[in-house]
Write a structure and sequence with these properties.
With 191 residues, the protein is an alpha+beta fold. It folds into two domains: 30 residues, no CATH class; 123 residues, Small protein B (Small Protein B, Chain: A), CATH 2.40.280.10. It is built from four helices and 13 strands. The chain has a seven-stranded antiparallel sheet. Strands 1-2 form a two-stranded antiparallel sheet. Strands 3-4 form a two-stranded antiparallel ribbon. Strand 1 and strand 2 form a beta hairpin.
Length: 191
């Protein structure tokens, strides 16, 4: 622990170069970095088309095996999940078609933007997903890429069944009707 040392009648910190004088001769140790706000999370990359094109049946969370430049690029939100899907090859799961932009400051040792990325799932989850995928009409779609509380990149996957064109139209009309009802009810709530 630090102690207060008397130097020529004044109190001073034993490591004077770390201290900043305050009023009445008291000293405070300066911090080198400002504390980060815990509420500031890196951006989340969302696959909006998946919610429109598919009926989501079951959701899974998987880790991502990434390179350093890919993590830096994801933290700035430079990724695209549209048109991507997940595939199970043997005992491993892969994310195919997701594009993570190259990080500007990576230099020559960057990464290929559209490469296959390994998804980290438990064996039991892979077996369960594999049996569902063998059924007709199911596909494995990534919904979003995000960073959890510990700072690890995670992917939210969904077992999905493709919507028909008339299902998409019905969902759009229902959404529009709900907006109209809310707009009309707002007139009466305000008075």
């Amino acid at each position: 622990m630090f102690g207060i040392v008397m130097v020529s009648g004044r109190r001073s910190h034993p490591y004077g170069f770390l201290a900043k004088p305050l009023e009445a001769g008291y000293y405070k140790v300066m911090t080198t970095k400002p504390h980060k706000d815990k509420n500031s999370q890196p951006p989340t990359v969302v696959n909006k088309k998946a919610y429109h094109n598919y009926e989501l049946v079951d959701k899974f969370e998987a880790g991502l095996a990434l390179l350093g430049s890919e993590v830096k690029s994801l933290r700035t939100g430079q990724a695209d999940l549209s048109g991507s899907y997940a595939r199970i090859d043997g005992r491993e799961c892969w994310l195919v078609g997701a594009t993570i932009a190259q990080y500007d400051k990576a230099g020559v040792a960057g990464h290929e933007p559209a490469r296959k990325r390994k998804l980290l799932l438990h064996k039991s989850e892979i077996r369960r997903i594999k049996t569902k995928l063998q059924q007709r009409g199911f596909t494995l779609v990534p919904l979003r890429i995000y960073f959890n509380d510990r700072g690890f990149a995670k992917t939210e996957l969904a077992l999905a069944r493709g919507k028909r064109q008339y299902d998409k139209r019905r969902a759009i009309t229902e959404r529009q009707q709900k907006k109209d009802i809310d707009r009309n009810m707002k007139k009466y709530r305000g008075k």
